[in-house]
Specification:
The structure is a homodimer of 340-residue chains. Chain A is an alpha/beta fold and 340 residues long. Helix content of chain A is 45%, strand content 10%. Chain A has 15 helices and eight strands. An eight-stranded parallel β-sheet of chain A has the order 1-2-3-4-5-6-7-8. In chain A, α7 links the parallel β4 and β5 (175-177). In chain A, α2 crosses α5, α12 packs across α13 (303-309) and α14 crosses α15 (331-339). Chain A is globular, with a radius of gyration of 19 Å. At the A-B interface, α8, α10 and α12 of A face α8, α10 and α12 of B.
Chain lengths: 340, 340
């Protein structure tokens, strides 16, 4: 079985974006604010938005299941306040849930949280539990920078975030550490902010003892871990200077990297440097980079090709990257698969 | 000849740091502010601080010359105002100049600029020209985030920075794009902020047409280009989506990557993905990662070993990485070497 642990609903029907625009307009003028019930998207529309896009590509590429969450760049936690994020997360999560019900053999949900800058993350727990308990979601996306590029939240290792971690451990769900749209003109969203956040999150964990407080906590760092595997020697050396244990013992029981690296040499490096046990297959397809690579004739985000071609991997390694590791990191996914 | 294009004076005599501490104390209480003339460091002290450290390692590793600039993390442009940065840059640059006079066959200078958050970069031109004209410096370090991790300056592609670029082109000096200490608790200075800045700067250039305005402008992106080479497919794909020319034509006449990547697989990826023409040897020795790699028994920052061992490089490639490319990117260095 091939499990893609990083899919977003980037192809939702246009009514969703229209509702969001009205919600944002409503922040300035309450009279135009929409109700949640104003959004009407039928099952046929939902089905078509998936069947013609994610599902078609999954079939073409041989991907069996995708862990599916709301579009990352649309989370935009910097917009409005907690009530804004709460209504928006509720809508986006429900749509993903409906996709998982329409295609129960192919999609399993991961939740967007209603984060808001400066707001206690404990306010997200109701939505988190609703998604896990009512929707059967198996993970969350956690945004380390709800400000959208101003980076004024406490580091992920601060007790500020502990209420979320307690619930993650209780419900046995990992978090993908994923920022959203940058509203800082310094940072291009998908070309800088996403990768920077991956590197930043890893280094925050490296300097801390977070996983001593939460030995069962699991973070998936997307986009191949940002700059981390390429600079693995730097990080090993920094850990040594900071008198931390070797990275394998210090972080690799808790941190996993996905394979959203869009060329063969990048995947080859990832597979060589990071223990196979810590690599989870993912493509983030129909995401940041949707084109065809003129050097290969294949889609940049068709990451399965790179893994299949990576010379340092055995067939056992590939089984772990494609399935085994995900079933271990996402125990609720494993349970759902076993139950089917 | 082997030229290390990325060295900082990290081993300056302690009197320098003591002066800086007094300068910072003087921001709150003018009565304790030091004068520039209060700093007294003799030639013997300077000589020892180099001979026992950088120079010894250069000899051990077979490095002939280092492009030498003030300590990056000490620049701390976020401290005080323009007058603060101006006095501090003047002192730091003069010390580097004295090092180049004491060891004229081994060190050539690169200038720290007296940047300050929110201040017009044109204010840096006097120091830039002093360093080039009086000190024979061959490059500058340009900090894209003088705030130290708040990223509130305009992107490098904004006309805000053009006065610096005009002077760089006029004097035929490249800039290493190098941030300083992070005062944002989200970002570890050498483990996150430095690498993020490298990625950010590259992506700023990618989204712009800066090098159409300045075809002769040259940027060196340190630390192996941050996350860029590892994600080269992502950047090629983003350029394609943004309707930019292929990266080689769009950016690689103007952007160069150093080799401060502290393990063999990272250097192997860099050498495979980035054209050899765009790779400059560097180690940033006695910098962020000073320890011995227990996996190899050699210093993490002994990057020459990785380049010597990298299987995709020919001896011609190595000559270019070690010498030829630096002489082309730093024409004033080339002229100085030819004159000796």
């Amino acid at each position: 079985m091939i499990i893609d642990c990083h899919g977003h609903y980037t192809t939702a029907p246009p009514a969703l974006e229209q509702w969001r625009k009205r919600q944002i307009a409503g922040l300035a003028d309450r009279s135009v604010a929409p109700r949640v019930s104003d959004l009407k998207i039928g099952d046929d529309e939902l089905r078509a938005s998936i069947a013609d896009h994610q599902l078609r590509k999954m079939d073409e590429r041989g991907i069996d299941r995708t862990i599916f969450s709301p579009r990352a760049s649309f989370m935009a936690h910097h917009v409005g306040d907690f009530a804004t994020s709460s209504a928006w997360a509720g809508i986006c999560n429900e749509l993903c849930y409906r996709v998982t019900k329409l295609f129960p053999d192919r999609f399993v949900g991961a939740a967007m949280l209603p984060q808001s800058p400066g707001v206690d993350p404990a306010t997200c727990i109701a939505e988190l539990e609703r998604c896990v308990e009512s929707y059967g979601f198996v993970a969350i996306n956690l945004n380390p920078d709800p400000s959208g590029g101003h980076w004024n939240a406490p580091p992920l290792t601060d007790r500020f975030w502990y209420p979320i971690y307690e619930k993650m451990v209780e419900h046995r769900i990992p978090a993908m550490i994923h920022v959203s749209t940058s509203c800082n003109p310094s940072f291009h969203t998908t070309g800088a902010h996403y990768l920077n956040a991956d590197t930043t999150a890893f280094m925050q964990c490296l300097t801390s003892d977070l996983f001593q407080d939460f030995p069962a906590l699991k973070f998936v760092i997307p986009h191949g871990g940002g700059a981390v595997p390429y600079h693995w020697g730097r990080f090993r050396g920094l850990a040594q200077e900071l008198k931390k244990p070797p990275l394998k013992r210090h972080l690799l029981n808790n941190i996993f990297f996905d394979t959203c690296v869009y060329h063969q040499p990048g995947i080859d490096l990832l597979a060589k440097v990071i223990p196979v046990h810590n690599i989870l297959f993912a493509s983030e397809m129909i995401g940041a980079v949707r084109g065809i690579d003129p050097e290969t004739g294949h889609a940049f985000d068709d990451t399965k090709r790179y893994i299949d071609a990576s010379p340092s991997l055995t067939s056992d390694d590939r089984r772990n990257i494609y399935e085994g590791n995900a079933r271990r990191v996402y125990p609720r996914l494993d349970a759902a698969l076993a139950a089917r």
